Structure formats: C-alpha cells, structure tokens
Amino acid sequence: xxxxxxxxxxxLALCIMYLGVWCFGEPDYNDVAPMEEVEKTALYSAIQGFVxxxxxxxxxxxxxxxxxxxQGVSCDLFDGLWYVTALSIGPIQDNSLxxxxxxxxxxxxxxxxxLKSLNFFKCFVSPHKHPVTIPGKNWEKLAGNLETLEFxxxxxxxxxxxTSFGSLIRLQSLVLLENGLVxxxxxxxxxxxxxxxxxxxxxxxxxxxxxxxxxxxxxxxLDLSRNLLSGSLPLTFGGLTSLLKLDLSNNQLEGNLPTVxxxxxxxxxxxLRKNRFSGGLTxxxxxxxxxxxxxxSDNPIGGDLQGLEWHSLQNLVVLDLSNMGLAGEIPESITExxxxxxxxxxxxxxxxxxxxxxxxxxxxSALYLNGNNLTGELKFSEWFYGKMGRRFGAWNNPNLCYPAxxxxxxxxxxxVKPCQQEVTSLEANTNSKLGEGNFDQNSHFMxxxxxxxxxxxxxxxxxxxxxFMMIQLFNCFLxxxx
Length: 482
Ligand SMILES: *[C@@H]1O[C@H](CO)[C@@H](O)[C@H](O)[C@H]1NC(C)=O
Ligand SMILES: *[C@@H]1O[C@H](CO)[C@@H](O)[C@H](O)[C@H]1NC(C)=O
Ligand SMILES: *[C@@H]1O[C@H](CO)[C@@H](O)[C@H](O)[C@H]1NC(C)=O
Ligand SMILES: *[C@@H]1O[C@H](CO)[C@@H](O)[C@H](O)[C@H]1NC(C)=O
What we know:
By secondary structure, the protein is an alpha/beta fold. The protein has four domains: 31 residues; 90 residues, no CATH class; 314 residues, Alpha-Beta Horseshoe (Leucine-rich repeat, LRR (right-handed beta-alpha superhelix)), CATH 3.80.10; 36 residues. It contains seven helices and 24 strands. The strands form two sheets. The chain has a 19-stranded mixed beta sheet that branches. The chain starts with a helix and ends with a helix. One 2-acetamido-2-deoxy-beta-D-glucopyranose (NAG) binds next to loops.
C-alpha cells in the first residue's frame, strides 16, 4: 500500500518533469536511445568546456538523445545509433546552456562528426578578462556534415578566422556577426561554394574584399557591413547572380560602383551607406530590376540624378541618396516609383524647382530634401504637409519658400520660410487682425479659411486627416499588390 503510494508520486513527479513524454506508466529506464559511448562522452565534455566544470552531463542528462534531452542539443538516428546533429550554446531560451566565465573550446567538440549545425550566441563575452580565439585546427573533422556555423554577439571572441574554415565544404550558412574578430577577410571562405548566407558583419575585419567571394554563385545574403574594409569592389561581384541582399555599409570601401552591379538581377537590398565610393551613379544600377531598397547615402559619389532611367526600378520602396554630393535637378521620372515610401535626398547640392508631382507618390511617408539648394515656391497641398509633418524635410534650402497666403499656418512645411510677396500681405493681414483680438496662429488659420473657431471643428479636421491617410494607405496597398 505504502510503496504503491510512493510509486505513484514518483511517477507523477516524472510525468511533470518530462511533460514531453506520454506517460502511460513508469518509463523503462533501460530503454535509452542507443549511442556510442565516445559520442556521449564527447558531447558531455564539449558542453562542459562551455558551461563550466559544475555541469556533470552524465548525472544530469543520462540519456541526452532520449528521455533526458538537453536544451540546444538535437540528435538524429544513423544505422540504429543516435548522434548529435545540432548544438546551440548561449542564452537563446530560459533554460538554454549558458556559458561560464572561463569558457573554453574542448577538442571533443570536433568528435561530434554528425554535427550539421553549430551555434554560439553571447557565449564569449569578456574581451578583457577572458578573450577566446576560435581553434585553428580540427574543423576539417566536421567537414562531412556541417551546414550551419554561427557565432553571434560574442564580444570576447577575438583573433582571426581560422583558415581551416575553408575545409567546411558543405557549409550553407556562415555567420560571424558582432564578435571581436580581426584580420583580413579569409580568402578560403571563397572556396565554400555551397554558401547561401555569408555574414561577417560588425567585427574588425580590414583590407580588401577577396576576389574569390565573387565565385559564391549560390549566395543569397552577403553582409560585410560594420567593419574596416577598404579598397574597391571586386569586379568578380558580377558573379553573385543569386544574391538577394548585399550589405557593405559602414566600411571604408572606395572607387566606382562597378558596372557589373547590373548583373545582380535578383537583388532586393543594396546597402552601401557610409563608405567612400565615388564616380557618380553608374547607369547599370537601373538594371537591378528587383531592387526594393537602395541605400547609398554618405558616400562622396557626386554626379547627378539625370543619368538613370528611374522608372526601370519599379520595385523601389526605399531610396536613400542623402549626403552624396549630388548636383543638378531632381528628375520628374523619380515620381514614377509608385511603391516608394522613403525618399532621402538631403545634404546634396541639388538645385532647381521641386515638381509638385512628388506629392503624388501614393505610398510616400518620408521625403527628405533638406540641406540642398532648391529654389522657388513649394507647390504641394496643405493636406500633404499635414500628412507628412516633419517627415517632409525641406529646411536648409535658403532659396525655397512656400506661398504663405494660401497656407493654413498649422500645416506649413517645417523650417521653410513663406515667400516674400505673401509675407508682406500676411503681415498686413495679421496686423489688422491683431487690433481686433488676440488670435493665436491656429485660430487665425481657422478664421481666414472660413472655419468657425470651435474645438469640434478642430477634432473633425484631425479626424478627416486620419481618414484621408487611411484611404491613402489603402490605395498604396492595392497598388503595390497589383
Ligand atoms: C559526474 O559525476 C559522476 C558521479 O556522479 C562521476 O563519476 C563523474 O566523474 C562526473 N563527471 C564529471 C565530468 O565530472
Ligand atoms: C581554396 O582555393 C584556393 C584556390 O582558389 C586553393 O589554393 C586553396 O588551397 C583552397 N583552400 C582550401 C582550404 O581548400
Ligand atoms: C532569380 O529569381 C528568379 C525568381 O525567383 C529565379 O527563378 C531565378 O533562378 C533567380 N536567378 C538566379 C540567378 O538565382
Ligand atoms: C544656390 O543657387 C543660387 C542660384 O539659384 C546660387 O546663386 C547660389 O550660389 C547657390 N548656393 C550654393 C551654396 O551653392
């Protein structure tokens, strides 16, 4: 009686502990997932190296591929035996394996020959107290199966990328993001022709981009941003024909934008911001038909906007060409980019009048033209200024003005002065009104545009603006889905 009472409690406890296991009775502890002893020991030792000596795998997880699964460890069955196929270390989930302050790579890691995926997240985090380098040797032991290798946000991971990464010929994803890695980009990585994703962003890599990176013709994502890379873009980049996203922003790259860029027909994101590119906007940019985001800002590129046939970039949603030393006028053909939401042209040397058609871009929600030398009268509707607020940037164009007489003062373009002629008439108008009473700017607008001054009208106005904006967004949604 008593023993069965205790027994049922044990079973209940086990059921609660291993909710994943369907509990029809006492589990059979001998029915463990069969594993080679060397595989099991290698797993325990490798993990212990990362999480610390206190962690006793054989005690805590006697059946790591069976009824005592380890968070971050996945297994698969090969010829009747279980092997570890994925290992993730670091605080991804609440009960993940966290790294110890004195974290170390153990050679046993490389005995896990069936590993397909190896991930480290916020594991090596003390660049000063306990810096760690990636082991230089043994990676070839994982070459047979490893498809994914990722080190993310490990500030304490320093030193160079081992050349033996070049042996991981099955690799499809190599992510070395936000670590403390240094040196030139490893040319051997250019040998990994199965790569679909190569992310080496936010480290301290310097020097040129290796020519052989252009041979990675299955690559979908290439992100080398936030490093210290210099030199010009390799002409081999034309070979990256599968590429969807190219981010080289925040480096010190220089030279012309090569015409081979035009070969990247499937590219949706081109981000070259904050580099030292020059030589004008190459005409072949217009051949990147799939582009949705083109961000080239903060480069001394120079030249003008006239050379490109903008209508061929029909998919553009974001076009950021600010701080590029662009001169000349803004071509009206830019208004054919019907999906455009963001247009940044600030901080250039653009001149001439602004086409009122810019306001007809159906999706536009931010339009920055500030810091140029645009001239003449702004001819957008007051509704447009109201809708955009400060996301319509036209300030710092000394020779630009808006026709104040026609304008409700509440919806004037921010930082733009009223045109001279109207200024005098407005002043006259205001002065005469000031004698009659104490109008603030809003009530002045209400009066002069025939509204009665009451709160309800104010609310109704706001409501109308909101309805207009919703209709606008809806139209935009329809158009971009046609
Ligand atoms: C784990 O604990 C067992 C005893 O419970 C001990 O025999 C074994 O040596 C320990 N393993 C490690 C790696 O500390
Ligand atoms: C990578 O390819 C180069 C030739 O492009 C070759 O010399 C080198 O040995 C290769 N490296 C590896 C690790 O296979
Ligand atoms: C580009 O994308 C299209 C459609 O998704 C696809 O059929 C084509 O194979 C891609 N081109 C390359 C070179 O990957
Ligand atoms: C701006 O353009 C005007 C002519 O429209 C010119 O006189 C002036 O020098 C230009 N200013 C700058 C800073 O380029």
